[in-house]
Amino acid sequence: MRLGAIADDVTGACDLAGRVAEAGLPTTVLLPAPPAPGHPSPTTEHHEDVFAGGDDASACAVVALKVRTAPVGQAVDEATAAAQLLLDAGASLLYQKYCSTFDSTPAGNIGPIADALVALAGADGTVGTPATPGARRTQYEGILFADGVPLAESPMRDHPLTPMRDSSVVRLLAAQTAAPVSLVPWEAVQRGAAEVASAIGAGHTLVDALTEGDLDVIAAAILSAPRPVVAAGGAGVGTALARAAVAASGQRVDISRSQLPEVPVTGRLLLAGSASAATRAQTAAFAGERHTLDPLALATDDRALDRLRDALAARADHREPVLIGSAPEVARAQAELGAERAAALIEGALAELAAFAVHELGYSHLLVAGGETSGAVTARLGVQRLLVGQQVAPGVPWAVARSGEREIALLLKSGNFGGPGLFTDAWEVAP
Residue 387: left if φ>0, alpha if ψ -120 to 50, beta else—which one? Predict the structure, then answer.
């Protein structure tokens, strides 16, 4: 099986790729060049070798877009272009990767992208689930649970860009598409893959899942579906599809033994644009040097960003990790500037600091927290491909990439992922 996945942000792509690679399926993350003026879709010509042979062969390719909160038309255009790239390269199964907390407003992009992928692939619909038990995301009776509580009662309720005020993924998806949306309940999953496959309807089918075993049943149902389908969901179903492919081929690649290119340590930088509870806990637990990025200062003080550049340049030992994170009073900045402008100021500033650290100061290792921030950083660095390595935490792998003439190590994490000690522990297994 050649699994071709389209992810709606960079950290979601790394989440899927890290888990799939750990399951034993060689995986690459591709980052299209940003759209050129006058062109609606990202440039993908440099990714003709998606499933290249030889030492760089990958059975799974994940295209990392930055469309989770983009306008619907742009999101559909970019996802369609990415899917066409994967199909042209020989993908045998398309996978729509969205967040395990279904980050999307009623006017969001998950439904429109699903409709577009179905039409492009000539499929009858999508099948899957956001459930990713390894990240404590489960689905029962169509209700999505995050860390054991319904989504709308979790911290995602007050997400600044995609506040989740409904826990029913059936209702959430139905608001975004004219296609039918149906549910396969957990009891049917317990009766096996044949039962699930027979329950797949036209349009979009969401399936309950509480365990990894449930995901394996769903993967088997997708692979044996009586009609062509597009797989969809969080990283959980994609990982189960990888397990099925490895079991069918009898060939498993052990990424703990595979060697990413070694990146000599010349500088370690943490950039935290996420305001999630997990990232706040990781920031609080970090004992090293830190600096605060205030969007209100960025909006009113032309020297705010220069002072942070100067602080980085003045450091005596760049190899000691340093953290630059958004101000904790983000709600005040959002109230005064608007949520989108505040987020854009933070993302743009962190991306500029990443480029300064790498290309002016010679930093080699970057840990970036936040999906939108990771997308801004990789775009600014001109990263086109990530070679995925060992996970630091579930869904949080290190990767090696090229930025210009330099080879760098990147860890791009969802704001919600990882334990409190991640900002300290991650360096121990860095390439």
Answer: beta
Domains and CATH numbers, the chain: 3-249 (3.40.50.10840), 268-429 (3.40.980.20)
Gap between the Cα atoms of 354 and 374, Å rounded: 10
DSSP 65-96: ---TTS-HHHHHHHHHHHHHHHHHTT-SEEEE
Retrieve residue 26's tokens. 């060689």
Burial class (CB in 10 A: 0-12, 13-18, 19+), 187: exposed
**395 vs 378: CA distance, rounded Å:** 18
Determine contact, residues 181/125, Cβ cutoff 8 Å.
no
Query: Which tokens go with 49?
Result: 């070798």
- Distance (Å, rounded) from C-alpha 1 to C-alpha 238? 12
* Sign of the dihedral defined by the CA atoms of residues 124, 63, 343, 282, in that order: positive
What strand order describes the sheet that includes 143-146?
137-140, 143-146, 149-150
Amino acid at 56: D
Name the nearest CA neighbour of 196 among 221, 215, 219, 233. 221
Written as six digits, the tokens of 145 are 């649970």
Task: Kindly report, residue by residue over 368-403, the tens digit of the pLDDT.
Answer: 999 889 989 999 999 999 988 889 999 999 999 999
Measured CA to CA, the distance from residue 94 to residue 85 in angstroms comes to: 11
Token couple for 81: 């272009």
Q: Are 289 and 315 in contact (CB under 8 A)?
A: yes
Q: Is 316 exposed, middle or buried (0-12, 13-18, 19+ CB in 10 A)?
A: exposed
Q: Count Cβ atoms below 10 Å from residue 80 Cβ, excluding itself.
A: 18
How remote is the C-alpha of 242 from its chain's centroid? Answer: 17
| Spatial distance between the Cα atoms of 94 and 225, rounded to a whole number of angstroms | 14
Task: Tally the C-alpha atoms within 13 A of residue 375's C-alpha that lie toward its C-beta.
Answer: 25
Per-residue confidence band for 48, with pLDDT thresholds at 50, 70 and 90: low
Record the tokens describing residue 85, joined without a space: 């790239």
Coil, strand or helix at 382: coil
Q: Three-state SS for 240?
A: helix
Using a 10 angstrom Cβ sphere, with 0-12 exposed, 13-18 middle and 19 or more buried, the burial of residue 243 is buried
Q: What is the pLDDT of residues 96-124, one digit of tens each?
A: 999 999 988 788 999 999 999 999 999 99
pLDDT > 60? residue 55: no
